[in-house]
Design goal:
With 95 residues, the chain is of the alpha+beta class. It is built from three helices and four strands. The chain has helices at 25-31, 39-42, 54-65, and strands at 8-12, 18-23, 69-77, 82-90. The N and C termini lie far apart (36 Å).
């Protein structure tokens, strides 16, 4: 299976700590030579440990603070390839 059409899901708590991952998260990580980023290695860590660049982190922080529902197109680079991905945020409760 190629990376196109895969769905990787993550949830965070109010402090932006990753509380769970699902969907094709592990398969995506492994297919991109990033087995060290499989679910068991990222749960319990800050989302911002995995978002590079001050400007990108700033945008995510702003969006998360205002999140009711938003979608963002971005790239998901790995050591070997650069892929396009989308992010959809759905708030489970007011932040």
């Amino acid at each position: 299976m190629d990376a196109v059409g895969r769905s990787s899901v993550w949830t965070i708590d109010r402090e932006n700590v990753i509380t769970s991952v699902g969907g094709d998260w592990d398969a995506f990580a492994e297919s991109n030579d990033a087995a060290s980023l499989c679910g068991s290695s990222v749960v319990g860590r800050s989302l911002f440990d995995f978002i590079s660049g001050e400007e990108t982190q700033r945008i995510y922080r702003l969006l998360l603070r205002r999140c009711a529902r938003w979608t963002r197109r971005s790239s998901c680079p790995s050591a070997a390839t650069r892929q396009k991905c989308g992010v959809t945020c759905v708030s489970r409760s007011n932040r």
